Amino acid sequence: MVKHNLLDIEGTTAPIAFVHQVLFPYAKKRMEEFLKGYQFSEVKLKEVQIEFEKDCSIREEGFLSRFTKAELKTKTKVLDFDSNLIPSYFEYLIEKDRKFGPLKEVQGKIWKEGYESGEIKSTVYSDVPGFLKNAQDLGIQNHVYSSGSVEAQILIYQYSELGDLREYFTSYFDTAVGGKREKESYEKIANQLGSAPNEIRFFTDIVEEAEAASSVGMEVVILNRPGNIPQKPHSFLIWDHF
């Protein structure tokens, strides 16, 4: 018996277009100005440095083109890490849709400013509120699991065009529990919910995430929303809507 709904956001409860055409450009445009007054913890700054140096070692042209010739050692095509390079680096990671914790944290704070100022209103599929309410009425708890930070997840549902939907959710999970394509992440979530995996139904638009959740015993539904990325053949249940 299902006791919990675990819901992805992008391509599941909200259109991919909203994330890529509204949220990402908003964060990218304001990244440099926001980071002028932002202080990373030593741990987070080290994470950024490690990720930066990993990308620098690959020397991928899209990465290198983010920086000026003065910043680039042209003979070796290598950059010395400097915190002043972080804005350009984070803009690159946004372009790549990199699921990187420190970036997600900063994006969430930038979006918070946008939501609170009224510049951003989130787009949520019209069938979502009814589905969440019906689940709640049946005694099923609703939870979120997304690569965006917990703060960003809450903002999407708080400032939606359909109203504040936070009342329908019990808890939120981000990649602090692990990657969405890793089975251990779903084991951790089940443990935190205090439920057997087969009491949890996971909704996503990505087959690899579905496979990871299914491998620990969760029931899985794949959403086939307009604009979603075509998936490889699979045997999971497919819904066009809630």
UniProtKB/TrEMBL annotation:
A Pfam family per the record: Hydrolase
Entry protein name: Enolase-phosphatase E1
EC numbers for this chain: 3.1.3.77
Highest taxon of source: Bacteria
GO biological process terms, semicolon-separated: L-methionine salvage from methylthioadenosine
Co-factor note (free text): Binds 1 Mg(2+) ion per subunit.
Keywords: Amino-acid biosynthesis, Hydrolase, Magnesium, Metal-binding, Methionine biosynthesis
EC class: hydrolase
Subunit note: Monomer.
Entry's family note: Belongs to the HAD-like hydrolase superfamily. MasA/MtnC family.
Catalytic activities: 5-methylsulfanyl-2,3-dioxopentyl phosphate + H2O = 1,2-dihydroxy-5-(methylsulfanyl)pent-1-en-3-one + phosphate
Pathway entry: Amino-acid biosynthesis; L-methionine biosynthesis via salvage pathway; L-methionine from S-methyl-5-thio-alpha-D-ribose 1-phosphate: step 3/6; Amino-acid biosynthesis; L-methionine biosynthesis via salvage pathway; L-methionine from S-methyl-5-thio-alpha-D-ribose 1-phosphate: step 4/6
Gene Ontology molecular functions: 2,3-diketo-5-methylthiopentyl-1-phosphate enolase activity; 2-hydroxy-3-keto-5-methylthiopentenyl-1-phosphate phosphatase activity; acireductone synthase activity; magnesium ion binding
InterPro entries, A to Z: Enolase-ppase_E1 (IPR023943), HAD-like_sf (IPR036412), HAD_sf (IPR023214)
Organism: Leptospira brenneri
Role played: Bifunctional enzyme that catalyzes the enolization of 2,3-diketo-5-methylthiopentyl-1-phosphate (DK-MTP-1-P) into the intermediate 2-hydroxy-3-keto-5-methylthiopentenyl-1-phosphate (HK-MTPenyl-1-P), which is then dephosphorylated to form the acireductone 1,2-dihydroxy-3-keto-5-methylthiopentene (DHK-MTPene).
Cofactor entry: Mg(2+)
Signal peptide (UniProt feature, chain positions): none
